[in-house]
Each structure stands twice: as C-alpha cells, then as structure tokens.
Design goal:
Elements lengths: L2 E6 L2 H11 L3 E3 L2 E3 L3 E5 L5 E3 L2 H4 L20 E3 L4 H11 L4 E7 L4 H13 L6 E3 L7 H9 L2 E2 L4 H29 L9 H17 L4 E8 L4 E5 L11 H11 L3 E14 L7 H12 L3 H13 L19 H12 L2 H12 L35 H16 L5 E12 L2 E12 L3 H7 L5 H4 L13 E3 L2 E8 L6 E2 H9 L8 H6 L11 H10 L3 E4 L2 E4 L1 H9 L2 H4 L1 H15 L5 H21 L6
Parallel strand pairs: 1-4, 1-7, 7-8
Antiparallel strand pairs: 2-3, 3-4, 5-6, 8-9, 10-11, 10-16, 11-14, 12-13, 12-15, 13-14, 17-19, 18-19
Helix pairs in contact: 4-6, 6-21, 6-22, 9-10, 9-13, 9-16, 10-13, 11-12
Length: about 600
Amino acid sequence: MGKILVIAEKPSVAKDIARVLGCKERKEGFLAGENYIVSWAIGHLVTLADPEDYDEKYKKWKRETLPILPKKMILKAVKKTQPQLKILKKLMNSKEVDSLICATDSGREGELIFRYIYEMVNCKKTFQRLWISSMTDVAIQEGFARLKDGREYDNLYLCAKCRSEADWLVGMNATRAYTLQYNALLSIGRVQTPTLAIMVERQKEIDAFVPEDYYEVQAMYENFSGIWFDKKETDTKIKKLEQAQEIVQKVQGKTGSVFSITQEEKKQSPPLLYDLTELQRDCNKKFGFSAQKTLSIAQDLYEKRKMITYPRTDSRYLSEDMKQKVKNTLLKLQRVQKYTSFISYIFSQENIPFHKRIIDNSKVTDHHAIIPTDGKISLENLTEEEKKVYHVIVMRFMAVFYPQYIYMVTKVVTIVEQQKFISKGTTVLQEGWTAIYKALDIEKTKDEKKQEQILPNLKQGETVVVKQAKLLKKKTKPPAYYTESSLLSAMENAGRFVEDEVLKEQMKESGLGTPATRAAIIERLLTVGYIIRKGKNLVPTEKGMKLIEIVPEELKSPQTTGKWEKGLSSIAKGKMSSERFMKSIERYVYFLIEASDKRKENIV
C-alpha cells in the first residue's frame, strides 16, 4: 500500500502537520513518514497565463486586439516558485503515492491554490480535504479524523475559479482599453475601482463643503451645566452672534427653575465576536494598524503561535458543537492573572450563557468567529504587536459571556428668563460587559473616552442660578475622511451606496471583496498611487480622482461588484452555474471596451 501525500499552503503549516503525523524525515521540498508525505505550496505556485501566452500579438497593447476573451483560460507556473512546483509534480504523480489530502487554507483562495496545482501537474488521483479552524495539535488530529471527500468542495473551487478568471478578464481588458484611450497607465479592477469611487465621492463632499460659523450658549449652574435650545432639544445652533450675545446677557446671574426631568433606561448588549473585518477595524482605531498589518499579525497568531482560530473569516458566531472547546479555552485563560477574575465571574454563573448572540449554526459559514484557542498560552513569546491583537480578541471573547450594560439617561430642562436649556447625564446601573473594557482596555479610542456629566439629584420646580453664561463659538465640520477602519466598514456594507431597495436587501450578504481580500485591495490602491495615507486618513490623489471621472458608472458602482459577489456566493452554494456567471462577465467586458471608445475627454 502506497503513501498519502498531504499538501499544505505554506512550509510553516506543513511542518506542524508533519509533526502531528510523525513525518520526521527531511527531504528537499517535503517531509516523509511511514504512511504520509507532507509537502507544501508557497502561496500561489500557479497563476493564470498572460495574454501573450495565448498569442504573441497580445504582447503589444493595441485597441484592435481587444477584448481578449480566451475560450479556455490556461495556467502557468509562477517563476520564482517553480522549483517547489516541480517537487510537487513529481510527488503527486509518483507511484509511491496512492492519494492526496488538500490541506491548504480552509477557504476560497486555499481551495484555488490546491486545485490549480492539481490541474497544472495533470494529476488524476483521488483526494480528500482537511478543513480546520485552528492550528493546535489537537485540532489537526481531529481534522484528520474527519477528512471529507475533496469533491464535496467542487462548488467552492468553481466559485474561486470564477473569481480569479473574472478579475483577470475585467482587469486585463479594462486596464488596456483605458490606458490606450488616455495614453497613461491606468490600473482598473473589479473591486478596487468601486472602492476608489466610494473614497472619491467622499472627497468631493469634503471639497464642496463650506464651513459655517455658529454659536451655542452654555449656562453654568452650581454643579452642572446646560445648553440653550430652541424648539427641539437638538436645535442648539445659533447662527447670529447678536442673538447669542443677547441670550448670554439675558440669563447671566439670573435665577431659573427645573422645568422637567425625564429618565430612560437603556441597555446595550455585548458586541458580537470578531470576524476579520471587525478585528481590522478595531486594531486600526486603537493602534493605528493597517488592515494588512492586522491580518499579518492575526495570521501569525493562528499559524505560528497557535493561539487564535482561523482569522480570514466572515462569521461572528460559533457552532453548537463548540461549547466544550469554549469551556476548555476559558479554563486556560483563567490561569492568566489579568484575566482570572473576569473568567471566574463567567464560571460563577449558574450556566455559561451560550445564547443566540454567541451560538448560531445558521450564521457560521466556512469558519466560525475568531476566538482564542484552548492550546498553550505563551504570552511571553509574543511580540508587543501580537500581544495587542491577542488581547483585544481575548477581551471580546470574555465580554460576550457578560450581561448587558444598563444605564439611565437623564434629561433635565431648565428655564431661565424664558430661555430653555437642556442638560444630559448618564448613570450606570449595571456595568456588565463594559467592566472588562474599563479595567483592561488601555488603548481606548476617543469615542470610548467620552464621558457625559453626572447630574445632581434635582427635583421639578427646583430653583437654579446661572453662575456663568458662556458663549461658545463653533464651526460646522466637513464629512470625515475615510480611515482604514471606516473604509473597511464601507466595503463590507457597500449595499448602503445602492439606491435600488430590492438590490440593497440582496447585497446585505455581499460587500466589496471578502474579509480575506479587503486589506490587499486597500494596499493595491496605495501602490498604484490612487490614494495616499495622511496620518490615519486615506485620501484619493488627483490621479485617482481623474480615473473615477473617466470610467463608466457600471465599473465604479458598488452595485455591479455586489451583484458579482452575490453570484460567486451562489456558485459556492450550488445555486448558480459557473457558466452563467462567466457569460455575464464576458458581456460586461464587451460593454467596457465599447464604453472606453466613447470617452475622449478628461485625459489624465
């Protein structure tokens, strides 16, 4: 009986799998054992061929050769990793190997990496799929105990293949068409262009914004303060200086009374567990990390440190069968001094509250939410940046088991010389999950640091004296620039930029890109010079602004890309054929070429 060849996505992952399988014999490009051989890719070893690989005529960029629509897309080896592909080809077709196990990352791109290699080396052997969400030894052992037939993931592969080919066809043709039309190298992409369009739209709003001066009047009482308002509590802006000065003079040193007191109890549930996009947003707000940096750190915490679960996930829930694993993880974290008291509280409850905001099988996709693993916790081995990312994941993991944050919002309206003032205050009734963040979150964001005043115990009709009336000069503010945090939100919720209500509803599941690709899209826009970083802000350049002026609406609309993401998701679920999807891409490419011909103005 022959051996089983296991193919991982990276050498580091292969080494972990080889250790668990007892493959100790080191060879060039693989590790061998009694029953298994473990080898690896180095990311993508195989890619889609370039236009000139189909026909020499495509080497020169000419309008008459467009559109480029190969009948069948062909693959080629990535040059710098060719030696490893040769090793895999030899192993995959070796008589010594009976079957294969695909152990690349458990997701769309991981599936594509393995299948492209499988096709490129013309392998016909049967293969199984290892699907795991954690790189601990136990998780790897459990994964090998429940391997699945590789063909069960055919739809996921077709979805990945369509994504890859669609990006090639749209990017290659649009880039050539618009570059030739405007005689300037213009990089255009299925996801990057609508992402840029969102930022350009915001820039236009900022550029068109004209700041206006306005005034507010603040009444300072004995131990609290209030802001003047007109008809509604929110009408605090006074446009004319004279009016504001008149109010100040009218109430200065005068006596008034408490007109009304209203109280409303509010409850705030703990935030959901992290998916990748939410983790990237938080790390950008708290530490200024780019989306790419957070992803790299999280990937290391998953692969090398084995301290968190698979990070490239779009789910914020856990599945029913994970309850025991979660308990084990909590027990491990309880041994870490700074977490001990918080986890002791979780265990002190009659039952660990596994409610619907934590456990929901219907909302677990290919992977569950990002949580700490139940493996060894070696904080001393982590870099400072790894500690920060791990810490925010642990805080969120603990917080979901805590009760709601309950607080009382008190509004007091005072009247002085017929002028009304509103005072707002918050009283915490139950700290709930916020106790964790108050105690452990050193890097609080500006929003988290905001504190409302604590109001004294007032009664209706009670007398108040204006100790000082202040005139506050203010300016209206323009819309905020996108940061990586807010841009990730905009990409994830691209449906809100769509006016069609039916499509907006459909797009709830599909934004621009996927959690795993959004960071790379932002980096790509920076690399090609369409946007720049200014502190924490991302700002479109003149080149980026002009590109959005010249491309047709369909190419920059989140609606188009959102429809495609929905289509790709349908292919993965077996609800749409890949042929139908690719036909729509083909029609779109023809449209783009025609549209580029009609646009002669706005030359970059």
